[in-house]
Design a protein that fits this description.
alpha+beta; 18 helices; globular
């Protein structure tokens, strides 16, 4: 959050200024290449090193401020005294000062994390729209945020419904770093759903084994469960000090917002015994929706007279401008994260389906030197629900598989089964794929095409698509909860294919 390394790396990668999105950068060191200028014009607001020069509490519009970004809090008395101080031309000094403390609220995260993948707004249930403030006056289900963006209510995360804060899950060990450098922010996140919603026995440590940082947080919050075991995160073993396990083995989380006690339910039987989906992330099934945007165009306006450099905080002439065609939401698509930790299915969103008029920055005519990119990005939607998406929403849903929205139909003609797809959007002339697609329908992506913002994240290969659609074909007749489909969750589909009913018609692949 301080270096913006991952953000810079991906931007330079897409602009063609780097051959990998995994190099290390620091926001304070960028210069004025096309990608650097793009970051200065559109992205450089959101880094912790930005100086806070205005008096007042943290709001949705706040960006940066070092320690203040997370730890500054104003009491009502401090806010009143600040108003008095400023209105008296700084002659009447405040009696009550703001505090810097560990009581971080969601608004402290909101300023930066409501951008890009929109985690903060998703968590509260709001999807960005292209509407203007005047379009939604007195309209139920819409909200205008402080920056005047208009949002539509979809569904909030179950943890938000319960009153949990961001820091109930993401502790100081993650947010403040552990001394290691990571190429991308998600790599610094060690917490997993299974750390609280465990499969068998929870991982714990006793109070007297807490590290100094965790102990200080425990004491500052006046916790009293020193006689109980405390949950620890599997990946890096850091403790979740607002949790404990009681004498009969029940686990609880203490909400940092209100002190309410929340029982931590183990994984359901379906999740814990399902062998077929053991490499599918929790978010893939339990995310009720995620944000999508398509039709982004970036163009440099050399004549913009009041271009503001977000890094140097200065006005100048000439600015990159971004135009977007459409905001929407849907169940997340799926992609494959494949690295030395294994192979996992994770949510994916259209991260960059866009054009960049590079020539506009170097003095060429508009449209003379334009690059087109179709990249999806791994995503953590933060729209978790107890209920899960149904089987067809993965195995026979075109958007989920990467083809884009449209009609994906299993047709049986003369005893031959075949999948067909008709897209909702027109084909983009740059690559003849539907505007919102990630990959071609049951065809291999052309060699050399970059289609992801991460080197270890990719769409499904044709063979994998066929495997998914094979189950989709079965689901045309067999209900999700039928005996045979439930059996496939335990044993996989291959043993069942050996005992096919004569009425079963499996798909053929051209």
């Amino acid at each position: 959050m301080t270096t913006n390394s991952g953000l810079i790396a991906v931007d330079k990668y897409i602009f063609g200024e780097a051959d990998s999105p995994d190099y290390q950068y620091h926001i304070k060191d960028i210069q004025n290449s096309p990608a650097d200028k793009h970051i200065r014009d559109l992205c450089a607001n959101c880094h912790l090193g930005a100086e806070k020069k205005e008096y007042g509490e943290i709001t949705q519009l706040s960006r940066g401020g070092g320690c203040n970004a997370c730890h500054l809090n104003y009491s009502e008395e401090a806010k009143t005294d600040l108003v008095t101080y400023l209105s008296s031309e700084k002659k009447e000094l405040p009696k009550f000062h703001p505090s810097t403390d560990i009581f971080v609220k969601n608004v402290h995260c909101f300023g930066c994390h409501s951008r890009s993948s929109r985690i903060s707004t998703n968590y509260e249930g709001w999807q960005e729209t292209s509407l203007n403030e005047n379009d939604v006056i007195n309209k139920v289900g819409y909200k205008v945020f402080e920056d005047k963006r208009v949002y539509k209510y979809i569904e909030e995360d179950v943890h938000h419904t319960k009153g949990l804060l961001c820091i109930d899950c993401h502790s100081s060990h993650e947010v403040m770093g552990n001394g290691k450098k990571y190429a991308h922010e998600e790599q610094a996140v060690s917490l997993q759903c299974s750390d609280c919603h465990f499969k068998e026995e929870p991982r714990t440590i006793p109070y007297d084994s807490l590290d100094i940082e965790s102990l200080l947080v425990f004491l500052h919050r006046d916790y009293t469960h020193a006689d109980k075991s405390i949950l620890v995160v599997e990946k890096d073993k850091h403790p979740l000090v607002n949790t404990f396990v009681d004498s009969v083995g029940n686990a609880f989380l203490i909400g940092k917002k209100d002190g309410n006690l929340h029982e931590l339910k183990p994984q359901s039987e379906i999740c814990s015994r399902d062998n077929a989906h053991k490499n599918v992330s929790c978010a893939t099934c339990h995310s009720s929706w995620t944000s999508r945007c398509i039709g982004c165009h970036n163009e440099f306006d050399k004549d913009e007279p009041r271009a503001f450099d977000l890094l140097d905080k200065k006005y100048g002439k000439g600015q990159w401008k971004e135009y977007v065609a459409e905001f929407s939401s849907s169940l997340p698509a799926m992609g494959v994260r494949e690295n030395n930790e294994g192979k996992y299915i994770e949510p994916a969103i259209p991260g960059m389906i866009l054009t960049i008029d590079k020539g506009s920055y170097t003095g060429k005519e508009i449209g003379e030197d334009v690059s087109f990119h179709r990249l999806y990005a791994p995503n953590s939607p933060h729209t978790t629900t107890k209920s899960v998406r149904d089987c067809k929403s993965c195995h026979s849903n075109s958007a989920s598989l990467g083809y884009g929205t449209g009609d994906l139909v299993y047709e049986i003609t003369n005893g031959i089964g075949k999948w067909t797809f008709n897209s909702e959007y027109a084909l983009n002339p740059n690559d003849d794929l539907p505007e919102d697609a990630w990959i071609p329908f049951l065809k291999a992506t052309e060699k050399g095409i970059v289609n992801s913002t991460r080197l270890d994240f990719r769409p499904f290969l044709v063979k994998e698509q066929q495997e998914l659609l094979l189950i989709g074909a079965c689901l045309q007749c067999h209900d999700d909860n039928s005996k045979i489909m439930q059996q496939s969750l335990v044993d996989g589909i291959k043993p069942l294919l050996k005992k096919l009913n004569k009425n079963c018609i499996l798909p053929t692949w051209n």
